[in-house]
What does this fold into?
Amino acid sequence: MPKRILMIVGDYVEDYEAMVPFQILTMVGHTVHAVCPKRASGESVITAVHDFEGEQTYSEKRGHRFALNAAFHDVDPSTYDGLVLPGGRAPEYLRLDSRVLEIVRAFHSRGKPIAAVCHGVQILAAAGILESRSCTAYPAIRPEIEACGGTFVAASDGFDNAHVDGNLVTAPAWPAHPAWMRAFLEQVGTRIQA
It folds into this structure.
């Protein structure tokens, strides 16, 4: 049965972490509403491409335009079956938006699936929903997870794993898409044959 999924993005959202989940979820028949505070349906955000090229941290390049297909001010969390929070640079300022945090808390209080990848976990930390919970994220987010009472789960081998704790499905970075999206799809009730 098709589901309604909300995806919250902003300028310099990580390209792969927004576009690929949007395409995967749409491909399996779900409706995905991509929204951004202070932007309307039909507008777009610019993405950033992050890569792991051997330096001490990831590199960043300007990405593509990612089209918004719904209006942020119309979001009613009760009408959605799941929430996706991509990473990149956007979460560092999206977590300052009180309405974004309100939406995240609404999904969480109803036990609805929430998928966050990489820096998207910063929004979960700011929403105050990680206390006594475990999750994975890009390693630089570990202090934020632990400061709010959560447990950081280190990537087991590279960045291709996902972690599930109740309704939370988290991943360290875009190389985890297969595991992360498979776990999220299971959470929303979509079975994918391996």
In short: The longest helix spans residues 15-27. The chain has a mean pLDDT of 95. The chain is about 30% helix and 25% strand.
